[in-house]
Amino acid sequence: MRVNFTVNGRPQEADDVWEGESLLYVLRERLGLPGSKNACEQGECGSCTVRLDGVPVCSCLVAAGQVEGRDVVTVEGLADYAKQRTEGGCATGACGTSLDAAQQWQAKGTDSQTGEGTELSPIQQAFIDAGAVQCGFCTPGLLVAADELLERNPNPTDADIREGLSGNLCRCTGYEKIMDAVRLAAARQGEAV
Amino acid sequence: MASPSGTPTKITQGAPAKGGIGESTLRPDGTLKVTGEFAYSSDMWHEDMLWGQILRSTVAHAEIVSIDTAEALATPGVYAVMTYDDLPAEVKHYGLEIRDTPVLAHGKVRHHGEPVAIVAADHPETARRAAAKIKVEYRELPVITDEASALAPDAVLVHENRDDHHIGHVPHPNIVHRQPIVRGNVEEARERADVIVEGEYTFGMQDQAFLGPESGLAVPEEDGGVHLYIATQWLHSDLRQIAPVLGLPEDKVRMTLAGVGGAFGGREDLSMQIHACLLALRTGKPVKIVYNRFESFFGHVHRHPAKLYYEHGATKDGKLTHMKCRIVLDGGAYASASPAVVGNASSLSVGPYVIDDVDIEAIALYTNNPPCGAMRGFGAVQACFAYEAQMDKLAKRLGMDPVEFRQLNAMEQGTIMPTGQPVDSPAPVAELLRRVKAMPMPPERQWESSEGADVRQLPGGLSNTTHGEGVVRGVGYAVGIKNVGFSEGFDDYSTAKVRVEVVGGEPVATVHTAMAEVGQGGITVHAQIARTELGVQQVTIHPADTQVGSAGSTSASRQTYVTGGAVKNACELVREKVLEIGRRKFGSYHPAWATAELLLEGGKVVTDGGEVLADLADVLEDEAVEVEEEWRHRPTEPFDLRTGQGNGHVQYSFAAHRAVVEVDTELGLVKVVELACAQDVGKALNPLSVVGQIQGGTTQGLGVAVMEEIIVDPKTAKVKNPSFTDYLIPTILDTPSIPVDVLELADEHAPYGLRGIGEAPTLSSTPAVLAAIRNATGLELDRTPVRPEHLTGTA
């Protein structure tokens, strides 16, 4: 089957999709967007978290056919998504994204091999600065989830952060630096107001 | 053939924080990892690539009567189906130390999930369905699942014709390796004991549960060879095992490290490497294999489950008199790293304590359970769980404070290990306990707020099982000792190639090693070392591959020590060559070139007095200086097979934990409230990464204390919970605050005085949590993990 949907603001068309394929597979293997990760492929680890019409979902549990006509944001588009949110008149960066807005923005392409000069969203920068990245396999899913958490709740308590990220497994860090990163991003967001 | 997309080209140290050693420099791969661009092994993609799939045994122990692949081969989209009979070379087995593991099962399967056949097809689902069409007829055999069944008089031998180098000294062919250690005289020492404490402990099977599944891409090359992009812990060890099975010389098997999503020991053994190469060479097409989580549980070895029998004695004033123990590790169906795990369990079974009279035996069994091998802590973890339980029992019997009792018996620099080896660098065991005990305690009833109980901070969490009723707090302590580096006489070297040249007017260093960066931050540290030693800002880390000499394994807490040492050494040699060039060009202009101690700092040649002699760029001009050199730590010796004596270890690493838990005693639910750690790291080359390692290791110890266990059915030896639905690892809600106190006492034998740090925190975390639960509940608790039924008396 053919699936038409929007990924990071760009219309995409995937052909010859087998009905059993997940959104995760289509993103990774058909659209060249392997940023969403395949740690468990059973909805337990959160490494494949993307936003589907603004809602965080495990893309491994979404059948590709279900995204027909809908809007997907992956980690590859997160920086531009956050930038657009801020430029859209939301000073805190935490005003939510309307469906219209979500469907109109466009991510910029990057093909950097080194990542130098890449513009990052506040949560991405905070993960680097706080040492929240080790092997990094959980990172894309955590970033999408944490960005959405801060969009909903710009000043989360520690218990809020733990609850908000409890669907994302990390095996390297013991989560302490991830807590630090979310606190840091929230603090920087607050300072920017 | 075009190279695959996602091929790692280079990783440069990003713009900010260009620090040398001792600074919390940020990861060079951080930006790639937060943008989703970092290419992990499962992200590799190649035009025209096929997908490989492995068919695994559905039973644990059986003769293979027949395999019928006809229907699978006839499936549209299928390019190849291979079984044992299709293997191209004389060599059909592999293994880390003992080559006992068949690439594909031959005649017999020895554990649940053993690879039997492999398929290549144009879509992963086609490959899966084709594999399911392969008909394998099994004639089941009795299963060996524990010591009693392994050593029974009529026991079936898991391996019939052993010819490995351990068979001569083991008492039974179902024992992989046995290491006794005898020192002093336990019978005499026991006479001095006022109290004797015995215990029998059980340690469950833990999984590494790295998040990036086993995966890779094998690309056939025009010269008949193959290029494998792979996530592993040791490229050259893989190469040594892969090439003979493919019937290729090692130079026709090129290996490049793809992005590695964690390892923790689980990537020391081969998984899909040979299978992908076989299918690529058979079909002439690139082949990608990616396990899903279910398969990953069958695709790598686990931590050895263990039974540990301990006896300790102490005088009434609290001095340990003797220790006797027997440690039985279940190695499962294939040897993997079992012999080395036995050596560790045995030689570290006393813990960080002074006991002159010991009688120790450790063995690993061959059984039909899942193969077990390396996992963070490697034999020392199981022992620590048991000896720390013993310390608490002794302290209780003596009416002493458990921390003071440990401090009274703590080893220190100069202590003789049970192997006869003196501890010749700082061993601040008592001090670490003092520090961890001195940390402020978390507030009582921290769940209470003005709006009532915050259930997220209570046992049972959002399940809303208690608002504080039946909740009891407990506190527990533990300390452990781990060896650093490969032991027992292993030639544990690493290789580094360092180059310095001028690019765009600026001196740039390139560091090339085969070290597997698995998340630990080795590449960060290599760049820091190069900056410190060569005085340059720009450092490029070359991708790890087999075009440079072996770096050894990313395991045993060894990489910063050994490959870090190799990078430091290569930098020093490069510096000498640079200074020679400088002397040749500029020596006549300033006498200090000949007389002073010269350094490279800030892109310049300077004297130790700080006088600038030349710009590095002017010294080098268009010349590049490059050195590739092996580096070794001081040698070790094997342990004597009868007495266990020998200078077997390179270095030791120590950590202590204090756990604070709250237990809902009615439902048997545990909330770990805080898990504080104090660790001696010798020298923190990157303090941010050091703390990250300690917190990560601590959390894996927490996991095996309260939730993580692979459940193997004792009747069938089949794995019952191969998923993240049923094998639980700690979430962010299960994990408490982990305050860390880092002590830096230099080891004069190690580069910069550093100490390998990655494993020690995984040891003491588990027994500290268990001690805290015992403290809260008054229960004995002689097994880990603890489940609700163990706390409610319903087990």
Automatic annotation (TrEMBL), chain A:
Residues 1-78 form the 2Fe-2S ferredoxin-type domain. The keyword Nucleotide-binding does not apply. Keywords: 2Fe-2S, Iron, Iron-sulfur, Metal-binding, Oxidoreductase. Pfam families: Fer2 (PF00111), Fer2_2 (PF01799). This is (2Fe-2S)-binding protein. It comes from Streptomyces thermocoprophilus.
TrEMBL record, chain B:
Residues 35-142 form the Aldehyde oxidase/xanthine dehydrogenase a/b hammerhead domain. Residues 1-28 are annotated as: Disordered. Residues 1-12 have a biased composition (Polar residues). It comes from the Bacteria. Transmembrane segments: none annotated. Gene3D superfamilies: Aldehyde oxidase/xanthine dehydrogenase, a/b hammerhead, Aldehyde oxidase/xanthine dehydrogenase, molybdopterin binding domain. This is Xanthine dehydrogenase family protein molybdopterin-binding subunit.
